[in-house]
Amino acid sequence: MAEATKRRILNFHGIGTPRRALEPGEADFWLREERFLLILDKIANHPDRDRLSITFDDGNTSDLSIAAPALLDRGLRAEFFVLTGRIGETGSLDSDDIRALMQMGMSIGSHGVAHRDWSTLPTIDLQYELTASKATLEEICKITIGSAAIPFGRYNAAVLKALRSAGYSTAYSSDGGSAEPLTYLRPRSSLRHSTTDDALENVVSGRMPPLKRLRRFAGMSARAWL
Ligand SMILES: [Zn+2]
């Protein structure tokens, strides 16, 4: 399948001013509101709009206060991956917020409990991250939660196996590039404060420089099978 015909999944984190203390290195993943709205306009007006998907990680309050209304204004929908350990904390979504997102036509998935690197966790802790977050969200949303976004994009074969065992039918990584429709593991491109207009254009159009593509393929293959 040609790259241009595949899906591209754009991943966002926080928008605007954070309402909580950020993790080390997190600030670059927050976008100014004007920049975010400009990117949404680009997506909404793109000829391949139907092949572009949008996700949000971490469950920041900006998901509901900024992102969701802006998506609706443009006829767009997105999937929001929530950290259940932060639900109700200052700066993070609470249960009512999560239900409000659903009522606006948005989808909800798990990002785990405590934003840990799943690839380094002992099996029992990994299982807890996957099953406890799923159960909490199912209690709040009253629907089956079938998708998860892997924190920091760090995974290996054990993580993918544990996700399947915990009942997830879709796992989102951060490997960049394009995604085959309906595959289990779906690579996303995370947009950062430092993402240039050229890099943004490559993400939206599904273009990837050849060397980057080769590295990505090698990395994904190693993580999935070794
Ligand atoms: Zn995250």
UniProtKB/TrEMBL annotation:
Entry keywords, A to Z: Signal
Signal peptide start-end: none
GO biological process: carbohydrate metabolic process
Keyword Lipid metabolism among UniProt keywords: no
An example molecular function term from Gene Ontology annotations: hydrolase activity, acting on carbon-nitrogen (but not peptide) bonds
Main location: secreted
Domain of life: Bacteria
Gene3D superfamilies for this protein: Glycoside hydrolase/deacetylase
GO CC term (a single one): extracellular region
Occurrences of domain NodB homology (ranges): 50-226
Record carries keyword Signal: yes
Subcellular location: Secreted
UniProt xrefs under InterPro entries: Glyco_hydro/deAcase_b/a-brl, NODB_dom, Polysacch_Deacetylase
Family, similarity comment: Belongs to the polysaccharide deacetylase family.
Protein role: Is involved in generating a small heat-stable compound (Nod), an acylated oligomer of N-acetylglucosamine, that stimulates mitosis in various plant protoplasts.
Protein name: Chitooligosaccharide deacetylase
Phylogenetic placement of the source organism: Bacteria, Pseudomonadati, Pseudomonadota, Alphaproteobacteria, Hyphomicrobiales
